[in-house]
UniProtKB/TrEMBL annotation:
Family annotation (InterPro entries): ARM-like, ARM-type_fold, IMB1_TNPO1-like_TPR, Importin_beta, Importin_rep_6
Domain of life: Eukaryota
The name this protein goes by in its record: Importin subunit beta-1/Transportin-1-like TPR repeats domain-containing protein
UniProt xrefs under Pfam families: Importin_rep_6, TPR_IMB1
Lineage: Eukaryota, Viridiplantae, Streptophyta, Embryophyta, Tracheophyta
Keywords: Cytoplasm, Protein transport, Repeat, Transport
GO biological process, one term: protein import into nucleus
Organism expressing this protein natively: Aegilops tauschii subsp. strangulata
Amino acid sequence: VQAHAASAILNFSENCRPEILTPYLDVIVGKLLLLLQSGSQMVQEGALTALASAADSSQEHFQKYYDAVMPYLKAILMNATDKSSRMLRAKSMECISLVGMAVGKQKFRDDAKQVMEVLMSLQGSHMEADDPITSYMLQAWARLCKCLGQEFLPYMSVVMPPLLQSAQLKPDVSITSAGEDGESDDDGVETITLGDKRIGIRTSLLEEKATACSMLCCYADELKEGFFPWIDQVATTLVPLLKFYFHDEVRKAAVSAMPELLRSAKLAVEKGQAQGRDNSYLKQLSDYIVPALVEAMHKEPETQICASILESLNESIQMSGTLLDEGQVRYIVEGIKEVITASSNRRTERTERANAEDFDSEEDELLREENEQEDEIFDQVGDCLGTLVKTFKTYFLPFFDELSVYLTPMLGKDKTSEERRVTICIFDDVAEHCREAAVRYYDTYLPSLLEACASENPDVRQV
């Protein structure tokens, strides 16, 4: 009953705004501290998770309880050393790191050093493959980095080797004939059928790999130029994972990391912290990352991840700027043409599905969600093209001439308000950044713009 009550507190406090949660914190924290002293490990684990969530949701309001809570958390971290207590120790890491992030660097700094000493000794010890501490520790290190910022740099030499090792894990895959009887009895194995083959994948390894990739992105984002010494290793690890189709989260993390690596490199070069490297290094990195993103965009089966790739590509173009040569711009534009065509084809297929006899309300809801994802893709296309126009100005117009064939139909009344809005925004960027050179597009776009001014949709009218 106590463990379930702790779970109820966890569910209540997750995503709960501080002003709602704070009036109850005195009672909640007091009760959970009592549960931490329980003789039941299940109850202690529930209390740790609930405390972590309460701290995460209340943020700086949790400072009031820090001095009472942290000694208990550190005691569990240091004393729960036997095999049966592995999950309890893992949960204490999670709780400590979330409490630290909530209260901030000034309050947490001294305890953070003690905690990191424990984590370093654990990192150096031999852990079994199924030890839950591994995954929790990866996440705890990343939260400690977020909390401490540049002060975390001295620990990176300890953190990075095992993190890269986890990110480089090979998937444990078994392939059998689809005709063979039965599914795997192993809960840790997920099976998918492709054609006449049944593929079994060990999910625990994939989850560790996904966590590690996500943490690498977090370090690059947080440490900025301080991450420079690890950029090459991380780039060679993550770029191939842009096409890691065994696990969506691995691809998402790899995609998100690309502009962060470029940003780290750019800041390091600008601030003279790039170990003697200059813009030629940034160009070399850009030449590696940007084409890889475009290629991944061609092959990405999930529309949501395709939108994320476009977002990262846009940020990468911003970081690279005029270091991109004409061939690379051409490759990006060709990729965007393919994305627009594929998206239009998917919309057409959905329209045909909507006209089928067996079409029902459940499928209607599904179609609406899928079309919203297509809108997100086109929104990101607009951002990418806007960045290219802002970066290259009139030099981009020959490419814009080619793209007009794809963009002009998007102004039609049969298109969604989002497609029309984004297309108008793209033309607006051309008019703003290319000035007189944009006059030649007025005959094409002006009638559609005037028509859009009378649109029933307020978003389209405003743009």
